[in-house]
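A reminder from the course coordinator: this example appears on the midterm review sheet, so study it carefully.

Given structure:
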């Protein structure tokens, strides 16, 4: 016996506007929180800008005027503060080779992120195609090797180094090598789980080919061009015998000042960091690159200003070992990024499998390491400009 039935379909008009139909998936409904993030970050920048302005316009102007008015040898011997260490402030630091390597890598990373975000803001890159976005970042990283080699060799030659090929090779392989080792271990774990999310062997081979076939040669080209240029001259002469650093107050202890220096850069980005982590780990798309670009600019300014402020206090305490500390001061914000990622894992995610937890912390370790290199380089470049500016402004016999 056949049963015959019919049904009707009625379309109901939705209250959701057509232009807003993807908002649930694209994180487009949090504009107020994003604006709160921007305002919070701008207040931090404003606070630091006022401090830097006071140092640059009031304190430094007073110091430079007083130093330039010293006429007798007796007065010169009574100098205190940052001018007193003028004969040591540009003395090459320990492990100067690795400092050159990390500064060059940071310049490469900065260039890659800046160009990527500009393209994303202009609409050339679609975040919904995560593979396309990642491919663009990798290609930009490869071609930015030219900047990495140039920057590291310029700094290395200023330190009167001669083994530029050795430093160039380290610049080309240190950072991507560490990232590759971590990534390969994580990928082996994914293979062990027989997951479709594992990166195929052919893709990994292509990445290695890009690395050694294009990025490494470009790094050597940039390094050769940088080393051929005349060395950057110091604004003051360096004494042959290093002066003794006086005992420092507890708050100028390197560990304490470095940890303090990372708080404000992290505070400028932690709200946006929440949205980025949500888009990555809760399978949502991040489309608000306009906000992200603003936060990136604010991060750059914050890292530069906090490092300049703490560097000035350090030099006033007659501690001239500023090279590495300027890198670590803003770079320490990466520690807070990793700690926040740990907090996010235990409060927002429901991951129970050990392998999934290892993958999360492995990828966040890679992101935090890259953030350390980026922010550390920004802080170092700011202090490099600042010290050269103030010591070129005083008359030193």
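Designed residues:
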């Amino acid at each position: 016996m056949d049963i015959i039935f019919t049904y009707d379909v009625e379309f109901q008009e939705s209250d959701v506007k057509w232009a807003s139909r993807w908002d649930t998936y694209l994180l487009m409904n949090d504009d107020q929180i994003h604006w709160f993030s921007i305002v919070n970050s701008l207040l931090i920048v404003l606070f630091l800008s006022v401090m830097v302005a006071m140092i640059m316009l009031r304190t430094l102007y007073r110091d430079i005027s007083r130093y330039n008015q010293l006429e007798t040898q007796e007065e010169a011997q009574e100098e205190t503060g940052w001018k007193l260490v003028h004969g040591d402030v540009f003395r090459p630091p320990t492990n100067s080779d690795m400092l050159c390597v990390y500064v060059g890598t940071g310049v490469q990373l900065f260039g890659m992120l800046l160009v990527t975000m500009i393209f994303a803001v202009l609409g050339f890159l679609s975040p919904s195609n995560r593979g396309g976005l990642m491919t663009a970042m990798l290609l930009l990283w490869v071609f930015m090797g030219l900047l990495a080699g140039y920057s590291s060799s310029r700094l290395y030659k200023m330190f009167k180094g001669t083994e530029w090929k050795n430093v160039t090779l380290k610049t080309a392989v240190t950072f991507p090598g560490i990232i590759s080792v971590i990534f390969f271990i994580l990928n082996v774990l994914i293979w062990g789980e027989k997951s479709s999310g594992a990166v195929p062997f052919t893709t990994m081979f292509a990445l290695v080919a890009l690395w050694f076939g294009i990025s490494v040669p470009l790094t050597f080209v940039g390094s050769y061009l940088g080393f051929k240029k005349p060395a950057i001259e110091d604004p003051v002469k360096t004494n042959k015998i290093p002066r003794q650093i006086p005992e420092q107050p507890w708050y100028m202890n390197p560990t304490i000042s470095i940890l303090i220096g990372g708080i404000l850069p992290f505070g400028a980005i932690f709200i946006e960091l929440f949205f980025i982590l949500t888009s990555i780990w809760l399978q949502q798309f991040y489309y608000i690159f306009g906000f992200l670009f603003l936060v990136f600019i604010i991060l750059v300014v914050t890292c530069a200003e906090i490092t300049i402020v703490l560097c000035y206090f350090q030099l006033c305490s007659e501690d001239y070992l500023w090279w590495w500390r300027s890198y670590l001061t803003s770079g320490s914000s990466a520690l807070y990024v990793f700690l926040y990622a740990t907090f996010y894992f235990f409060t927002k995610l429901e991951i129970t499998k050990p392998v999934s937890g290892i993958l999360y912390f492995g990828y966040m370790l890679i992101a935090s390491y890259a953030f350390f290199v980026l922010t550390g380089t920004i802080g170092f470049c700011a202090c490099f400009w600042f010290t050269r500016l103030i010591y070129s402004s005083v008359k030193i016999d």
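The two ends are 113 Å apart (CA to CA). Residues 42-52+84-90+250-388 form one domain.
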